[in-house]
Amino acid sequence: MLRGESWYMIRDLLRDGVSISEIARRTGCDRKTIRKLREQPAHPRPAPRRPRPGILDAYKPYLEQRASHGVLNATKLHGELGTQGYTGGIAVVRRFLSPLRPRTVSVTERFETLPGQQAQVDWASCGHLWDGEQRRPLSAFVLTLGYSRRQYVEFTLRQDLEHFLRCHVHAFAYFGGLPHELLYDNLKTAVDHRTPDGTVVWNPRFRDFADYYGFTPRACRPYRPQTKGKVERGIRYLKGNFLLGLDRNAATVETLNRDGLAWLRETADVRVHGTIHERPSDRWPAEQAALQAIGERPAFDTSYVTQRLVSREGVLSYGGYRVEVPPEHAGRVVLLKEDEQRWLRVYWGTQCVVAHRLNAGAHGRLQVPGHAAALRTLARRRPAMTVAASPPRLPDWPEVERRPLSHYDDAAGVPAVAR
After folding, report:
1. Contact at 8 Å (CB) between 37 and 10?
2. Residues 6+ apart with CB under 8 A from 253
3. pTM for this entry
4. Is there a contact between 338 and 163 (Cβ–Cβ < 8 Å)?
5. How confident is the model at residue 288 (pLDDT cuts 50, 70, 90)?
6. Which of 44, 58, 210, 364 is the most exposed place for a label (fewest CB within 10 A)?
7. Domain carrying residue 90
8. pLDDT digit string, tens, across residues 70-117
9. Same structural domain, 28 and 157
């Protein structure tokens, strides 16, 4: 039987009017074969092969009967077939059982919120970025409003509590208000832990932050990311659009945040959203009217707060810096606060005794004008500050009587031979 190119070649020659004898001469085929091909309406198809008997065929009724009773464990059934004479492998049994297993599909109801009711918050890992000579992980803080789907995105090199709160403050200022609820995954900066009965215990400073701005924090159920699907979808859109093909070697956090805000205004807010089938900018007026106003209150203090001991030379260590402090505070434990503009302020009680500006990537000694002269003056008044403290004198313990070791052997009744 002719197949493939020979069949098509003869059909073309017949269509062109070439005689059967000429076609037989050119192709070497018999004229009867060519006449038979001329009468065929289509390409001949090979007859279907008869299926070969499988090694499992004799045991399929037994497997179907066991599967109808809910027994679908391939290892167990393979062992049962072995007692009946089956000599094949377990992979054949698994392939046969696969279509017999019940298919369960999780059903999720989409949860839509009213304008101004809720926003969802999460961090997104965005690869790495060069910070000077150091390659550091890049993160994006993403806050998505539930009704309009407008987003706020801010890139940072840290995911600590201070940056987490600062990004919130910037988001509230960006939208000119805040929703009544904010939904979080189980971030350590938000959720401290859960009690055995599932009650959420919030991070104390984050709880103060929520109370200050008057929103209600909510936490997702563990291992259920679809609860905050709006922000998850926004993160995928951010990575697949703005960050796609971005040159990380030429980018900085500052340029990313500048270009990211422009991308939000010019692209993200004006595209037709795939879920709501509307533009976020079209839904924004209704959302904006329902947001809580921030009012005239000052921004929440998101400074880094820590304590340090001032040395006898009036110097303390912080973040790779040697920070000079007025010498009268030598030996004291002082409070340090580093704000968003990288101003480091040192407090004794409620009084700010000195303030220094920290330079990014620079380390060294942060000096106070006249510090050396003030230290010398104070040293003359309090010379003990510059003299190494003598070791403390041990108390006068009572004299202990010294006895030979044989005295303890006699008291224990040890014979002299055994000594």
Report:
1. yes
2. 129, 131, 138, 155, 156, 157
3. 0.65
4. no
5. very high
6. 364
7. 57-99
8. 888 999 899 999 999 998 899 999 999 998 888 765 555 567 889 999
9. no
